[in-house]
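WARN retry 2 of 3 for item q-0093 after timeout on previous attempt; input resubmitted unchanged.
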Amino acid sequence: MSKPPIRSSMKFVALLLMAVPALALDDIRLPPGFSIEEFADVPKARSLALGEQGTVFVSNRRARSVYAVVREQDGTTRTIELLDDLNAPNGIAFHDGYLYVAEISRVTRYANIEDNLESVPPAEVLNIELPDKTHHGARYIGFGPDDKLYISIGSPCNVCEEPEFGLIDRMNPDGSERETFARGIRNSVGFTWHPVSGDLWFTDNGRDMLGDDLPPDELNRAPSKGLNFGFPYCHAGDIPDPRYGDGKDCDDFVPPVQQLGPHVASLGVRFYTGMQFPEEYRGQVFIAEHGSWNRSKKIGYRVTLVRLENGVPVSYEPFAEGWLQNESVSGRPVDLLVLEDGSMLVSDDFSGKLYRISYTGTEQEGTD
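OK item q-0093 returned
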């Protein structure tokens, strides 16, 4: 398979990254009883999906590839490059034996993928039209409990009025009957569904250039179709946009269920559905924060926890942090995945790793 040429700017970034010290796992701070280990090497690891046979699928939008990570009988992992030469493949999903891959302007799927990891079947291109603008063009996809494929259409700007963007659409698995599910969303690069109610929950990245502390990123809940979350008119529920907010009432839009840190770049979000972690973590919300690029002091670069009571957020706190040390970055979490044994994977597109967080302590340790 041929590789695309690497642009000189990418070479410059690569040289900068080579100078950054590697992550020391001892630097990662976790609650008592939890541990973290390297699970697999995957270049620029982004979105994660789990196959029925336990295969972990990983996207890599900058290297234009999609990988499969297979766990061997001796506990080691093997990484297989399935696809390359794609156009910024970011979103991936597994459904009924198919691997779905979202590029900027198309979605493809591959049948019976887990039985064909060494010889991937031909791509089937879904008959849908997607915009080809690259700004916020990294699609995120997932299958909801309604058996529909959901896809994000990020706004092609920092802040602008573009009614055909800033959406989460949904469709049948073959791409038919596409419709807009939610709008007023700047750029969602992570969503999931409540394991009991089936409601869609998603992260949204707040606009830039309003200073260090405005606006917060958002965790949103969409229990039904047709809701508008305010972009570009209102941010984080109660902050009118200085350009587009005139004449708008923020009360007309759906506020976030939880305001997150400003510019933390909240991406992957998952409810913890396993049984390995202590009971206080079950059914709670975990978020991968990729980390800020436009603050005078960096923030994010961690995994956070939003605790719920009766389905309502009551706290927002760090869960795993240490990828940021004194303004020096050694990792950027992107997505999360709960494995069948109840452990949780974290992808890191900065270090090119998948990390596995597990609980090995006693129940008492985990609740201190």
